[in-house]
Design a protein that fits this description.
11% of the residues lie in helices and 23% in strands. It is an alpha+beta fold. A hairpin with a 4-residue loop joins strand 7 and strand 8.
């Protein structure tokens, strides 16, 4: 009994040493927790982190989420342009692909919360979060990209890393923004109109934002690196598979199997090496068939 009284007395003396005055308020800095491995400074992080702020969006001329992934060196293989090789089913969308590990290997968060994947999937069947439909950039405060595998913390959809989009929280009043951009050697242009409005008090904040992007098409012949050229999925210079071979095709024998690739007639002129097929399915030798 004596020991219990001594312990209680000692504990009471300890509390008396740290008095708490009525009405005393200690200032506490705002703390935003967006993930176990996200920190405010990349120097304090055990993993590499890239932070892109609202000022960077304006300086870089970003118009949509696809512009962010296009300018990140650590992001390789994202699909954000309409083309017949990768985006037949997902035209108009954009996605992350950190270090080229796959469209579904980077976890995308909005204010620390997981998002629903896009209804349009990639040609290879990969599901992803559409960055163009995630949030208007005028409402985005910053983007934090964890460029390291985090599957142990977030699950298998974070094998390549995590991207967290953080919105503005102290918007007061109404702000409008109009952006226009065009190419130097084509009639292609982008027009973006954005609006954000917000209000709040001591216990609440309300913010709403909307954006409209009109992006005209830029055909392959108008691009600097493809002017007067063509693309082939069999290489560059490449080979071609004719869907309907006929006698009108110059230099191509009639009756050639439609699934056999045809060597580019300008293969040698383009710096390529002709690689003809040894035999055709019918056993005949044809130097026109093959790859470049």
């Amino acid at each position: 009994m004596i020991s219990k009284i001594a312990i209680c007395a000692a504990f009471s003396a300890l509390l008396a040493a740290f008095p708490v005055h009525a009405g005393q308020v200690r200032p506490v800095d705002e703390v935003v927790v967006t993930g176990s491995r996200f920190v405010q400074s990349a120097l304090d992080s055990p993993s590499p982190i890239t932070v892109i702020g609202a000022d960077d969006f304006l300086a870089g001329g970003y118009l949509a989420g696809g512009d962010i992934v296009r300018l990140l060196p650590s992001n390789v293989g994202s699909e954000f342009n309409a083309d017949v090789f990768t985006q037949n089913l997902s035209v108009g969308t954009a996605n992350f692909n950190l270090r080229g590990l796959g469209l579904n290997a980077t976890l995308v968060l909005l204010n620390g919360r997981r998002q629903t994947v896009s209804g349009g999937i990639a040609d290879d069947g990969s599901a992803f979060v559409d960055l163009n439909a995630l949030i208007p950039l005028i409402a985005l405060q910053r983007t934090e990209v964890l460029k390291d595998g985090a599957s142990a913390l977030y699950g298998t959809d974070a094998i390549a890393g995590v991207a967290n989009f953080i919105t503005k929280s102290d918007v007061r009043g109404v702000e409008m923004q109009l952006d226009y951009a065009n190419t130097a050697r084509s009639a292609q242009h982008d027009l973006m109109a954005s609006l954000i409005a917000g209000t709040g008090g001591e216990r609440f904040d309300v913010m709403a934002a909307a954006s409209y992007l009109r992006r005209s098409w830029l055909p392959t012949p108008d691009r600097d690196f493809t002017a007067g050229k063509a693309f082939s999925s069999f290489g560059q210079p490449g080979a071609y598979i004719l869907l309907a071979p006929s006698p009108a095709d110059p230099g191509i024998p009639f009756g050639l199997d439609r699934n056999i690739p045809i060597i580019d007639p300008d293969c040698s002129a383009g710096g390529g090496i002709r690689n003809p097929l040894a035999t055709q399915p019918d056993g005949l030798v044809n130097a026109t068939a093959g790859t470049c």
